[in-house]
Amino acid sequence: MEKKDIASYSFEELQEEMLAIGEKGFRSRQIYSWIHEKLVDDFEEMTNLPKALRQKLEAAYEIRRVEMEKRQISKIDGTNKFLFCLKDGNMVESVLMKYKHGNSVCISSQVGCRMGCRFCASTLDGLERNLTPSEMLRQVYQIQKITGERVSNIVIMGTGEPLDNYDNFLKFIHMVSDEHGLNISQRNITASTCGIVPNIRKLAEEKLQITLALSLHGSNQEKRRSLMPVANKYELHEVLEACDYYFEKTGRRITFEYSLVHGVNDTPEDAKELMGILKDRNCHLNLIPVNPIKERNYEKPDKKSAENFKNKLEKNGINVTIRREMGSDIDGACGQLRRKTMQGV
Ligand SMILES: C[S@@+](CC[C@H](N)C(=O)[O-])C[C@H]1O[C@@H](n2cnc3c(N)ncnc32)[C@H](O)[C@@H]1O
Ligand code: SF4
Predict the structure, then answer these.
(1) Which of 45, 134, 159, 271 has its CA 20 to 30 A from that of 173?
(2) Rounded alpha-carbon distances, angstroms, from residue 253 to 62, 126, 230, 244, 319
(3) pLDDT tens string 215-231
(4) Which of 23, 93, 135, 257 is catalytic?
(5) Is the Cβ–Cβ distance between 190 and 255 less than 8 Å?
(6) Does 39 contact ligand 1 (Cβ within 6 A)?
(7) Contact 169, 163 (CB under 8 A)
């Protein structure tokens, strides 16, 4: 029989589970703390549990391993990129970025992605499977353990579409912000989505305090559709209405992400249309010069034209930044390190 993934149990679920197997309530608090505060991955290390209980846990449960396969450290800004190997041999990428305000970790939510965005390396081989809550959590735990750095911010912007793995993603948010675990403030968590409308609305109902980042990338429905197949299913106006709903329900300002692709979506006309979309919205715009992948011939605009694009929007009152490139000397676009390793390049 397959062992149960105990690190995916929420605090309440673990309490119920321990009572169901005849253990006292306080044991669940101890076990949860070992896994989610002290970050151990072996029952043997849980030294305040009786040996018999450790053996009982070992027989029926597992703390799923997420093992470091590769680590690259940027000489420019100290960014760390990790490739982690999962129990079934699949690999995922995570990144640690060091800022003045604290350490931010970018995690993956799926192995691969089925959304097919044209410029993205994560989707080139489609979706392999969803990550469990424990596999998402352990990316953060491992980075904290390996580097000895305390993680204060989390972005779910690695491989995968979090709202395509909705239940596990939601559980991850609850667990990583749980006071019995790492207790990371939801205000320090950002989840990025390509725009799965029903799940944006569902998430709004949860009234979490996380920031929602919406991958926009097109200044109108046609342009967006040409870059993101998901726009065939959900039109731009529906996506924007869902974002407005999220803001209305949570009071959290939306971040719009816009990958600048030279000659495709960075024209003065695009800036004008983008202004029309954003001017009456309480939001932030993040411009990301596209990170070229060899499978597509998209190019990033030069620095000057990216600045021009930004200035046009700024002059018209849009709150906009160009995202600082982190770790430019280590394997660039998200999903590339994983692909290269899987292909043995
Ligand atoms: C990899 S996605 C993961 C989160 C979610 N699936 C989404 O699309 O928002 C995170 C962000 O990276 C952007 N992105 C993907 N490939 C990129 C590339 N080659 N260059 C720049 N940004 C890219 C996406 O558009 C998205 O805004
Ligand atoms: S940008 Fe996001 S949704 Fe699109 S393919 Fe990449 S990971 Fe998937």
Answers:
(1) 45
(2) 39, 31, 23, 9, 11
(3) 999 999 999 999 999 99
(4) 93
(5) yes
(6) no
(7) yes
Give how far Cα 97 sits from Cα of 135, 150, 217, 284, 286, Å. 20, 12, 24, 21, 17
What are the residue boundaries of the structural domains of the chain, listed by start?
A: 4-62, 67-342
| 67-342 CATH fold | TIM Barrel (3.20.20)
- Asked whether 135 and 64 are in contact (CB, 8 A), the reply is yes
Residues in contact with 79: Cβ distance below 8 Å, sequence separation at least 6, in sequence order: 73, 95, 96, 97, 98, 326, 327, 330
Fold that domain 4-62 belongs to in CATH = DNA polymerase; domain 1 (1.10.150)
Q: Is 96 in the pocket of ligand 2 (CB under 6 A)?
A: no
Q: Which helix (H) or strand (E) holds 266?
A: none
Per-residue model confidence (pLDDT) at position 335: 65
Nearest-5° Cα angle at 138, 136 to 139: 70
Looking up tokens 């030294």, which residue turns up? 47
- Tokens at residue 213, please? 């980042």
- With contact defined as beta carbons under 8 Å apart, do 254 and 295 qualify? no
Q: What DSSP character marks residue 280?
A: T
Residues 234 and 341: their CA atoms lie apart, in Å, by 34
CA distance 323 to 311: 14
Q: Which amino acid is at 336?
A: Q
Burial class (CB in 10 A: 0-12, 13-18, 19+), 88: exposed
The complex scores an ipTM of 0.99
Contact between 78 and 69 under an 8 Å Cβ cutoff? The reply is no
Q: What is the pLDDT of residue 325?
A: 76
Residue located nearest, by CA, to atom 11 of ligand 1: 157
Is residue 334 part of the annotated active site? The answer reads yes
158/272 Cα distance (integer angstroms): 30
* Domains 4-62 and 67-342 in one fold: no
Angstrom distance (rounded) from CA 334 to CA 329: 13
Whole-structure pTM value:
0.96
Would you state the pLDDT for residue 332?
56
The ranges of the chain with pLDDT < 70 are 331-336, 339-345
Supply the DSSP symbol for 328.
T
